[in-house]
Design brief:
- This protein has 12 helices and 11 strands.
- It is α/β, with parallel strands linked by helices.
- The protein has 2 domains: about 25-260, Peptidoglycan recognition protein-like (Lysozyme-like), CATH 3.40.80.10; about 265-345, no CATH class.
- The strands form 3 sheets. A 7-stranded mixed beta sheet has the order 1-3-9-8-10-5-11. A two-stranded antiparallel sheet has the order 2-4. A two-stranded antiparallel sheet has the order 6-7.
- Helix 5 (about 200-215) crosses helix 7 and helix 9 packs across helix 12 (about 330-345).
């Protein structure tokens, strides 16, 4: 293994315990190990479930400029790690192709306990809450500073980018937080249950971790459960499902991606494609190809819609083609993906 890690399975009883080098981070490492998320949720009450500001992931949005580290107090520091931001956005771009829906929490690109964050692993956790607890995952509590993870897997399957700096998620164990992404899945639902069906985000977590392995070029063994690496052994039980089959499922998605198999389009794209007849598909495919040629995607889309193609699709939850059109303009990147499928000879059948 790289960067000084011994060539040993981190789940092995013989694997050494690693601590953060910085004194404050080492202290938080032990605090995070001593306090469970269940205790934090109970302590925070309804504040743990407060809404946080998020935006839809835009794969074309440029990466942010570096930001200098600032004082942390008891909340997340403002840190800058452009490499981590670029990596997480790269993962989201691949994950979206696999079928994951991503959102970005406000401020995630400059959130973390430290900008010293070079992931070589990805930790899978669960929150022990039946509802999403983004507010708590961002802020932590006075004795365990946030952020408490880098990614949050929601009950609706959405994957939320939460922090691009080092998060307090691993606690004492064989892999430190500065060397691993932390993904907290909402659940299990109901509390205390075990197995894949207890986690609404199980499938999206598989796809997200596959995207992580693809982006970094990692073997699937680099995805670990907190219960495998936390020390002392059996200190943690998360996540409440078997990691072997989880990694096997990740491996299948990595193989599928590398083989060039075309994933199913996201639901809105599938609905869009399914409601076009052959003439509509040909017209949109031609418009998209022309857009690629003269670098005027938006103009060609507008022309195609003006010729009446917009009337061919009325999205679920809208009342008219015009209403649907406005939604598709707002989701321009999804239109482009759907049209690219057509341009490559896709049938439009979900």
């Amino acid at each position: 293994m790289s960067n000084g890690y011994p060539d040993i399975d981190p789940a092995s009883p013989d694997a050494p315990i690693w601590h953060e080098d910085d004194g404050e981070l080492r202290e938080h490492d032990h605090q995070r190990a001593a306090v469970s998320l269940e205790e934090m949720i109970a302590d925070a009450g309804e504040e743990a479930f407060a809404e946080v500001e998020t935006i839809e992931f835009d794969p074309e949005r440029p990466d942010d400029d570096p930001v200098l580290a600032g004082p942390g107090e008891h909340g997340p520091r403002t840190v800058g790690n452009p490499a981590a931001v670029a990596s997480m956005r790269g993962i989201m771009r691949i994950g979206r192709l696999l079928g994951v829906t991503y959102r970005e929490s406000a401020g995630w690109t400059t959130r973390g306990r430290s900008a010293i964050f070079t992931p070589e692993w990805s930790h899978q956790h669960h929150t022990a809450a039946s509802r999403d607890i983004d507010a708590l995952l961002i802020s932590g509590r006075p004795d365990v500073s946030g952020p408490l993870c880098n990614w949050a897997g929601h009950n609706d399957g959405v994957m939320l980018a939460l922090a691009a700096g080092r998060a307090n998620h691993a606690g004492v164990g064989t892999i430190p937080s500065s060397k691993s992404y932390g993904l907290e899945q909402t659940g299990p639902v109901p509390a205390g249950s075990y197995g894949t069906s207890a986690f609404p985000s199980y499938r999206s977590s598989v796809l997200h971790q596959a995207a992580t392995c693809i982006y970094h070029g990692w073997p699937v063994s680099r995805v670990v459960g907190h219960k495998e690496t936390a020390r002392p052994i059996r200190r943690k039980s998360d996540p409440h499902y078997d990691m072997g089959p989880f990694r096997t499922a990740i491996g299948r998605e990595v193989t599928r991606y590398k083989s060039g198999d075309k994933p199913e389009p996201p639901p809105e794209e599938a609905f869009f494609l399914a409601n076009l007849d052959a003439a509509d598909r040909d017209m949109l495919a031609a418009a998209f190809k022309a857009a690629l040629t003269d670098n005027a995607v938006e103009t060609n889309l507008a022309q195609a819609i003006d010729r009446g193609v917009g009337a061919a699709f009325i999205l679920e939850g809208t009342t008219s083609a015009d209403d649907s059109m406005q939604r598709w303009y707002a989701l321009g990147n999804r239109i482009a993906t759907a049209l690219e499928t057509l341009a490559k000879g896709g049938t439009g059948n979900p």
